[in-house]
Amino acid sequence: MREIAATWMRGGTSKCWVFRRDDLAVPDLSVDEVLLRLYGSPDARQVDGLGGGTSTTSKAVILAASQAAGVDVEYTFAQVGIEEAKVDWGSNCGNCSAVVAPFAIREGWVAPVDGETVVRVLNTNTGQLIVQKVATPGGVLSEEPTERLPGVPFLGAPVRMGFVDPAGRSTGRLLPSGRPSDVLSAAVGAVRVSLVDAGAPVVAVAAADLGVRGDESPAELDATPGLLGRLDAVRREAGVLMGLAETPEEVERAVPKLALVSTPHPADLDEPPADLTVRMLSMGRFHPAVPVTGSVALTLAGGLPGTVVHELVDDADAATGLRLGTPAGCVETFVESHDGVPVVGITRTYRRLAHGSVVLPDPPLLPSVSA
Amino acid sequence: MREIAATWMRGGTSKCWVFRRDDLAVPDLSVDEVLLRLYGSPDARQVDGLGGGTSTTSKAVILAASQAAGVDVEYTFAQVGIEEAKVDWGSNCGNCSAVVAPFAIREGWVAPVDGETVVRVLNTNTGQLIVQKVATPGGVLSEEPTERLPGVPFLGAPVRMGFVDPAGRSTGRLLPSGRPSDVLSAAVGAVRVSLVDAGAPVVAVAAADLGVRGDESPAELDATPGLLGRLDAVRREAGVLMGLAETPEEVERAVPKLALVSTPHPADLDEPPADLTVRMLSMGRFHPAVPVTGSVALTLAGGLPGTVVHELVDDADAATGLRLGTPAGCVETFVESHDGVPVVGITRTYRRLAHGSVVLPDPPLLPSVSA
Predict the structure, then answer these.
(1) What is the CATH number of the domain that holds A295?
(2) What's the number of domains chain A is made of?
(3) Which residue is closest to A17 within chain B, CA to CA?
(4) Reported ipTM
(5) Number of neighbouring beta carbons within 10 Å of residue A213
(6) Residue B269, pLDDT above cutoff 90
(7) B contact test, residue of A47, A59, A83 with most B CBs within 10 A
(8) A194 is in which domain, residue-wise?
(9) Do A252 and A137 share a structural domain?
(10) pLDDT of B20
């Protein structure tokens, strides 16, 4: 048995356990093995571990101070499998990203200055630099809950996050197919899609082209007969077109993500109104709000003529950011240019829930029985 | 903001945060307010707190060393509301009970002896004394995972628990109506029930009388048209007959519990075979395994001629305990007599998951928006 220092934090609409990278180095065990046992996986309920039995509560954030130029913290995200004994390292989680700056300041990795402190975070999964700003009045980190975030009923402390030059991190190109839109094969219904790689690889589809309004609840969409299956086929064919895999079968569950987009319905306008209504698929189901990385891709797509997103939004809005209408409420993104480099961003809130240590039992690390 | 010492433990098939009673005393706040904010309630996902968004993961165990004769530890159980800003103090959780002895020994409240240490636990919700035994070889608590428990895929450290003289703790009588079985009103279908108060108040019904086999999965039973509604009506009318409330509307959601009982199906016999197949309703849905307190009531009912349980089991089995066939596998209870006092028990496993402190934000304690 071994105790490992850890902090449990909410980042945006996710909950994640946060570890120092060195602390996860356990003799004779891989990090995957350590995480799976800590989280109680594989098990649908994760009853014997830290995991919460849902994709948004089975996440780990692994951090280390960085010596690299222009980087303060190296941040690795792990999606810990629930029913599968597998850790997915292939993508970042934008929501969990929000915990990095406050954790780094509390650890003493970044010295806070009076007012606002900037923390430069390198996500190692994607090579994405994320510049984070948190309030540090008097040179002390403020954890005071002052902001609302759609999907979180309590106020939280804000982290402003800018994704620096996010285009093409996974595929090398903002438009991996080289075109603003593509029509997929007849086998998946010849649906028109825009393939965009920024923050994460995303497939955008007009909701109307799939026979839904686009402002349904995640539960309604999940329950629409045939929809999840068809969207997964669309997503897999699109993944191959984006160069993420050789065959549809090899396309991962986590990426590309898929967004159903539509014009905000006059009857359910947010105040002020959203620019675009979004329902996004994440790990095989509709997301309760919106994945942050997906919102970055949609924001850049909004500024690109010929994409299915651009056709639905106002040019002037898309140039400075978008208000995305999500199942949980309106989420606002921003677009800035710093020395000619585009920065796309969003504000999330966070909260420290618990800290201390977690307990790793001795091997065997796999279940004794299937329960 | 305030940090509160806490330990996260699995007890049986539940996960609970464990607190010292004194640590939950916060100036100007009730314990209910403290727990609700810590757990992130009300919120279906409990995303801003310790709760896991399900009844088996939104539980608190509150402990104090006891000065009372014959008692080592006073144990209070709290079922923390999820979507409702309400803490239920009306019943015990048998699964969570398993964490008490190991926690008390680690705290130094009970001095372990070489071999096996006995911890006498008084549950304050019900007045129930629970005698617990844990392995303490060489006078040191063993947390070594050695036993299987249905519903938990990993091995755990065992706690043997005996409920001392459990009859009538809530109503004053083992058979609160004075009869081994009752026929309810025509309004709920004139169904025959046995009302038993031991461990917790339980309503036992033969599955066949409700038109189901009784060995279906919890999900199948939850989805059976009309079943949950009808069982809740049965449960509420039975609750009034047991004297737990004046009217069906006032009957609590947590108690009485309801058990569908049936003869084990020859085709799905466990090895060795179960004595009784059980599917139990808990907090409005079918339980993934079996509530421990409910298993105590069914065990005593098995020994009482005229109950719907007795009719289904073998007399000799019921005298010493029952093997209950649950959705997660077979759970074994025991019946003993100590100086003429009946003790009904069961073995559960536990694991420490995490420990340190949890963070209580400053007021306001209620959500800023409904999300």
Answers:
(1) 3.10.310.10
(2) 2
(3) B354
(4) 0.89
(5) 14
(6) no
(7) A47
(8) 182-338
(9) no
(10) 98
